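ok trying again, last paste got cut off:
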Amino acid sequence: MVVVVARPLQPFVTGTITMLVIGILLNFVGLGIFCWALFALATHALPLFVGMTVGIYSFQAGAGPFGAAVTGLVAAGFTFVVGRYAFSVARSPIVRLVIGLLFAVPAGRAGYSVTLALAHLGIPSEGWRESFAVLGAIAVGGVAWANVSMQIDPAPRPGAAHSPFQPPNGVPTTTGG
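nice, full thing came through this time. structure:
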């Protein structure tokens, strides 16, 4: 006769090594989410600044915390939408440049500051910190420019055809035009 003794099962996640590995992985996830949030806020620096200014002003005017948050969010969204619309409607390259710079320069400055602050955590050399900060400013400013100019097609000019093909002037079309 053979007697089999069952050993109680131990949970997998109670070991010290397992908990350390899970902790490290969750730290990486948290750091990634934190960096993503900083990058998103830096690329939308102008709408964020406008929203914060309006929110603080409305709080000081007596709107309360909820009213200040709502007015700030509305002002930030309005700034972003109006900026994109103005960029897409503008036909002059100079006006587009000015509108794009209104969004890209504050974003670049915010990207520089965030990248420099994060570089202070792990890079001992001042030159390398500045180099990374400049690269961060260029990247964030470029993404902010891209966000403003994301309109697929510029607004059509008055009298422009909506079809992708326009025959040359004087060539008759099948519709008699």
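cool. The mean pLDDT is 81. The radius of gyration is 27 Å.
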